[in-house]
Specification:
The protein has a five-stranded antiparallel beta sheet. The protein has a three-stranded antiparallel beta sheet with strand order 3-4-5, covered by helices on one side. The chain is α+β, with helices and mostly antiparallel strands and 243 residues long. 31% of the residues lie in helices and 21% in strands. It has four helices and ten strands; from the N terminus they run E-H-H-E-E-E-E-E-H-E-H-E-E-E. The chain has a single domain, classed as 3-Layer(aba) Sandwich (NADH Oxidase).
Amino acid sequence: MKDAIQKITLNEQDLYEEALGYFIRYSGLDLTKGKHRRMMDAAYQAREAGLSGIDVRAVVSRWDGSCISGGALARDGETLACNAFSQIPDGAVQFIYAFVVTAGECVSTEGDPITMQLFAHTWGTAYVDVARIALAKAFCADARRSLSKSDIQLSSYFGPGFYGMPMTENQRLCAWLHAESIGVTTKDNGLMLPLKSCSGLYLAMSDLSAMPPESCEACVGNPKGCAYCRNGMRKANVAEVIK
C-alpha cells in the first residue's frame, strides 16, 4: 500500500448491519415504542427505494510517518494545513493512512415525503461513517502486519473540520489521492460531491500519548496556532482508538 494509491470497493451488504445500528442511533429511534417502530418501517422503505444509489468506494494510500515533521505534513512540495500537527513530536508517527471514501447517495426525490428524504439522507451518513471505520480497521491491521508490532494503534480521525484542519483541505486530499477516479469532486469551499463522502487521515503510532488532547478534536482552527489556544497544549487520553 505504501505511497501507491489503491481503489477499494466495499460491499453494501457487508456494511449493512453496522450501518443499521448507526442509522437507529442517528435517528434517535427507540424501537420499544410503537410509533418509532412504524417510523423504522418507513426507514426500511427509504433504504430499499434509494439502494441503487449506494455505491461505497474509496481511494487509500499509506505514507511514511516522516511526512509529519516540524509540526506539519508535507507532500509533493505542498503542506496540509492542520494546527494540531504542531503538537505531534517528530518520529512519533510510523505510518500515515490517507483516504477518500464515498457512499454515493441513498436516492430520494423532492417529491418524496420529507420524512423519506430525511431517512435517505441519514442512511447515506450511516454508510459513509461505517465505511470510514471499516477502512480504519484495515489500516490498523496493515500497520501491525507491516511493522510486526502488535502494540501499534491508530490515532483518532484527522480530517477537514477536525483538529483545526480547514474544510478547504478536502481539495488537497482529494487531489493527492486522485479522488475523481471514484467519482468524488470538491468545490472551492471544500464541499465534497457526492455529499456522502469524506476525506482524512489516520496515524499509526506506538504511543498515543503523543497525540493532541481530546479537547482539540472539535477545533475549527486558531489562526495563531495551538500555542495560543487555552486547550491546545493540555494532554489527555485519546477517546477513539481502533483496537
